[in-house]
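Table S2 (text version). Query chain:
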Amino acid sequence: MRNTITHTFVGIVTVVLLLLLTDPFMYWMPEQMVMAVLAGASVLMCFWMGFVAYERAADEREVQHRMFTGRVAYLAGIAVLTVALLVQGLAHSIDPWIATALAVMVLAKLLAHAYISRNN
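Corresponding structure-token output:
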């Protein structure tokens, strides 16, 4: 239970930091130092959420739930990046980071699948 609350809290903080960093509604104009601190905090939080934070599965049901949530997160990431690529393609200004992130996600999945298939 404590692990779930911690992960939820850190996830919410990460989303708030990213919203403050991107300022989608042009609500504020922070100084350069504030933007640097927000960028640093956002990168550290995303790194922690993606690579350091983990959940321990006690039984097969929890393992299946973790696998399902990973698949949903992957599909959501692919969907958002694909829509962003489509919208930017129609505007004739494709950001190379979106295409790179999409390619890395797909290649990582293919490589992981090949690795597991070879070792089983």
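Notes on Table S2: The chain has a mean pLDDT of 82. The chain has four helices and no strands.
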